[in-house]
Design brief:
mainly beta, 8% helix
Length: 163
């Protein structure tokens, strides 16, 4: 993702070289999408990998109770879903550990509704910091050095106060 290119139909040597540099992040799917575990503020959160979402990580409200060291921002956004549903999400900052990398103060979007089948979803605001290797049965990733989106990245769409 950092370099902005995609390789398709890799040869065996190229695949094995790339695979050796990555960590397995998922062999589980829900509804055809990979599901990975992300440690957010001390809680292991099962998230759908959603490359169509521009946010960092969105979680259902019930997951917030499991987390420690959450910093409230007094901000929220309204997201419009694929079926035109509007979801209000309070924004909190949390420490996140994923793929053996630590990220301090990541904006986490806490949806006012539950998220079905998983605890949340992880979007490109976070995933852009990782190169991904996708196979039919597994998803691998490696940190590429790009920053995850900060709270300031959402200045144009965030609003003061909570939902």
């Amino acid at each position: 993702l950092r370099d902005g290119y995609m390789s398709l139909a890799m040869g065996t040597t190229e695949f094995l070289y790339e695979r050796a540099q990555c960590s397995l992040i998922s062999s589980e799917t829900v509804g055809g999408a990979y599901v990975c575990t992300i440690n957010i503020a001390g809680a292991n959160v099962r998230c759908t990998v959603d490359t169509g979402a521009s946010t960092t990580i969105c979680i259902g409200k019930s997951v917030l109770r499991q987390m420690k060291g959450v910093e409230r921002t007094n901000a929220h956004i309204e997201q419009v879903g694929i079926n035109a549903e509007v979801v209000c999400s309070d924004i909190v900052n949390c420490n996140v550990t994923f793929c053996n990398n630590f990220f301090p103060s990541v904006p986490i979007f806490v949806n006012q509704q539950s998220i079905e089948e998983t605890d949340g979803y992880v979007g490109l605001g976070f995933l852009k910091a990782f190169d991904m290797l996708v196979t039919p049965l597994s998803l691998f990733a490696r940190y590429n050095g790009a920053p995850v989106a900060s709270l300031d990245s959402y200045n144009a769409v965030r609003r003061e106060g909570s939902c």
